[in-house]
Predict the structure.
Amino acid sequence: MANNPERIVVWPGYFDSKTSRRSGRRVSKGRAVTNPTLDGLAYAARSAGIRKMKKEENTSHPSRPNEQEGRLWISIADALSATGANSKEGVLQAIGTAWNSQQSEIKASEKAAKVSGPKTGDKRGRSQRKSFKGSKGTKPSERRKRRK
C-alpha cells in the first residue's frame, strides 16, 4: 500500500514490552504488552473507539525485516476523533492503555481460575492435586511408621 496522507500505520512492535525504546517501542512500559499480535492490536484499537482500520498481514517493519508481524492502517480523522488525541503518539498511547488493561484482565481471570482449582467433574484436574493433609505425618516415612 502506498503512502496515504489520510492514514497512519501502526505496527504491533510499537507495543512490545520486551523491546527498548531504542529498538522501536513507542509507548511506555506501563502501556506495553507482552507478545503483541496483529489481531490483538486490531481488537485493542477497536476497544479504544477506532472503527476505520485495515489489517495487512505478513508485512515486516523496515527496521525488523525478519519478523512478519503485519501492520494496521488507521484513518487519521477517525483515530483522532475517537481517542481525543491530537497526534499519532496520543493515538498510540490510547491503544496501548486499552490493550494493557485487556491483557491485565485476562491475566487476573486466569490467576483466579488457577486459584479456584479444578471444577467438580474434572477428574484429571482432581487427580493432579492429591494431598495428604488429613494424615498426621507429612513425610512418607512418618506415614509408614504410623501404619505399623
About this structure: The radius of gyration is 24 Å. The beta strands are 7-10, 53-56, 71-75. The chain has one domain: 7-117. Residues 88-116 form the longest helix (29 residues).
